[in-house]
Amino acid sequence: xxxxxxxxxxxxxxxxxxxxxxxxxxxxxxxxxxxxxxxxxxxxxxxxxxxxxxxxxxxxxxxxxxxxxxxxxxxxxxxxxxxxxxxxxxxxxxxxxxxxxxx
Length: 103
Hints:
The chain starts with 7 loop residues before the first strand and ends with a helix. The protein has helices at residues 20-36, 51-54, 56-66, 88-102; strands at residues 8-9, 15-16, 45-46, 70-71. 46% of the residues lie in helices and 8% in strands. The chain is mostly helical and 103 residues long. Helix 1 packs parallel to helix 3 (56-66). The protein has a two-stranded antiparallel ribbon with strand order 1-2. The longest helix has 17 residues, at 20-36. It comes from Trichonephila clavipes (Golden silk orbweaver). This is Transposase.
């Protein structure tokens, strides 16, 4: 599991606001090429409901890359509204604990 730095800089090194175009450019130019260097055919992609993450063009790009393994608002696995702190553990850990306890 990993994460990307949330700060974006322009060519001069200044902080810039992440908009839809910058977010898709980061995914297209950096993230996807890096994935292609690793064996990650079954990788899931999770993101929150930030506007640049849920723009129609962004969702199409991510669906093309990850198929049904996308957790996002408007994605195949919908990110619950107002759940900015939801993690992959929420999908696995609690069921696992309950099964272990109730067996």
